[in-house]
Design brief:
Layout (H helix, E strand, L loop, with lengths): L7 H9 L8 H14 L2 H14 L5 H12 L1 H24 L1 H26 L2 H49 L1 H17 L3
Length: 195
Amino acid sequence: MRVPKLTLGFVLVASVAAAQEMPPPQAMQMQVQKIAQERPREAEAAARAFIMLIAPDRVEGSRSLDTLKTRSLDQYWMEVAQLTVQFEMVQNLNRRDSVRAQLVAKMFGLEANARELQRAYRLANEAQRTAFRSQLEALIGGHFDIENQLRVLEIKDIERRLGEVRAETQRRLDKRAEFVKWSVDDIIRDATRPQ
């Protein structure tokens, strides 16, 4: 079974959400493979629910899955697996950071659209391919913009944490004499305590 090449968000999401205990991209890809091979029914429901979440204006999203199912069961299950893993990632991320989760869900929606266009491109004539290429460029441009929004959020988090560390370091420097006295008092207290 061939792994789809279009899994743009896995690496980015894993790096952006690393501090939020997300699994590494390899683990996510293994999970996709496992779902595609085992084909659990609940994965189909999760994938369809996720399509409705990431593309509520695209009623044909669920129908495109049905079309894919009639065309190639292997491709259908790879898409279901991909959507299911992405759905789980968004749910986990939403528990910690709803703003990032919304951006990641949008990004995954663009990826799902891009995978659909990729499949259509294979079957298209030259005129259709030109149109599909333009659509893909717009989708990937949007994906890039969302990646940058996620990076800006990460930079802000890092700057906030750095500010907190600097403030704590300054506080400790300002109260150095007190901290040293308390530590020495503790050591002496422990030394003079009966055994």
